[in-house]
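Field log, afternoon session.

UNIT: design team B
ACTIVITY: writing a sequence onto a fixed backbone
BACKBONE:
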């Protein structure tokens, strides 16, 4: 598995970066990561059908924390000031990362058509970027859930720092434990990748149960292009299997049709689907450049081996988006109800 020359310099293999061939199944697992919760659990992060298949003992929290709890200081070395860890939106390709991430938060709020006093659930709220932006600029009452303790600590402090305690609540909680409450709007940004293909139906059914009739759901997720058959699609590539093993335990990517089919099957009406592939290529390239520029600090924070693996992962993701071997889509859907959807007749308001 080789990658073209990128900002981290030269051709590289994941294993070479740390002195062993990590892609060789006979190679010992990288000691910096240990066996990895994905391997220990035998599948991806989301329980449900998969849990039934793989039996008890799967630990979603462990899988999520494996990736996100490297340390907040480490992520701050390459993310923007709002700590958004998903695709930015470049109104102009020359825009810097901070500007593009604010534009993405804002575009997400526009697509959700947030109004003052509405309630918003952000599933997988990360470091709290969207919930804080939505409360500050759109006057909503926002509820964010994450499985990462480091993110929870950071987001809770951010809410306090911004004086948003009355309008933003952050919980260290699996979103599947939420029930008996309905939100006006729900966002899921960069979280669906944790769910797993066999769990799509349960996932969308649960989101539907948390949404008011005609409530808007914004679905933002990385996707792989569909292959000739579902069987070929599910096979995946060796590169992706290595990524799951060493970086993103539990990760699994759908094709966009698989996701929208599942949404429709589970009571959603699809309104818009917008591809942001090149935006994510640019985002990942900027993340790589920033982490590379800050590599000495990253070595001190997370260790040299882990930093190098992260650099290769980010550069590999940049290439994959740039080449088009993966894509990313924002899909706007509503909880299906008879009659008018409640959306405006055109999308002009989004791009004004
Ligand atoms: C790639 S991060 C995206 C964070 C944020 N939405 C952003 O755009 O910056 C994925 C998030 O999903 C969360 N997550 C994954 N599975 C979850 C679950 N079952 N319940 C709640 N949060 C979950 C992780 O903790 C993390 O915050």
């Amino acid at each position: 598995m080789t990658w073209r020359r990128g900002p981290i310099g030269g051709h590289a293999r994941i294993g070479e970066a740390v002195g062993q061939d990590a892609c060789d199944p006979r190679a010992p697992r990288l000691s910096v990561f240990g066996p990895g919760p994905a391997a220990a659990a035998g599948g991806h992060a989301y329980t449900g059908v998969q849990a039934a298949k793989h039996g008890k003992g799967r630990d979603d929290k462990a899988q999520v924390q494996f990736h996100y709890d490297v340390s907040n200081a480490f992520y701050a070395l390459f993310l923007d000031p709002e700590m958004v860890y998903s695709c930015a939106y470049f109104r102009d390709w020359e825009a810097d990362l901070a500007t593009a991430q604010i534009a993405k938060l804002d575009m997400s709020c526009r697509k959700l058509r947030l109004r003052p006093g509405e309630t918003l659930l952000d599933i997988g709220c990360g470091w709290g970027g969207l919930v804080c932006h939505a409360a500050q600029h759109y006057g909503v009452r926002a509820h964010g859930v994450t499985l990462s303790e480091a993110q929870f600590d950071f987001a809770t402090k951010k809410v306090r720092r911004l004086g948003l305690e009355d309008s933003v609540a952050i919980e260290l909680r699996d979103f599947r434990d939420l029930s008996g409450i309905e939100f006006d709007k729900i966002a899921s940004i960069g979280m669906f990748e944790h769910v797993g293909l066999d769990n799509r139906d349960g996932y969308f059914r649960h989101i539907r149960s948390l949404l008011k009739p005609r409530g808007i759901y914004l679905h933002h997720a990385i996707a792989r292009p569909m292959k000739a058959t579902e069987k070929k699609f599910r096979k995946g590539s060796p590169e992706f299997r290595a990524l799951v093993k060493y970086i993103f335990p539990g990760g699994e990517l759908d094709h966009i049709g698989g996701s929208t089919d599942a949404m429709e099957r589970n009571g959603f009406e699809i309104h818009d689907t917008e591809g942001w592939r090149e935006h994510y290529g640019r985002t990942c390239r900027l993340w790589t450049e920033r982490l590379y520029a800050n590599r000495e600090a990253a070595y001190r924070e997370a260790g040299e081996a882990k930093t190098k693996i992260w650099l290769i992962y980010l550069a590999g993701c940049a290439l994959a988006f740039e080449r088009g071997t993966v894509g990313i889509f924002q899909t706007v859907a509503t909880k299906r109800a008879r009659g008018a959807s409640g959306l405006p007749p055109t999308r002009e308001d989004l791009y004004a």
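LOG NOTE: The beta strands are 119-123, 141-146, 168-172, 183-189, 211-223, 268-275, 327-335.
NEXT ACTIVITY: expression trials, pending approval
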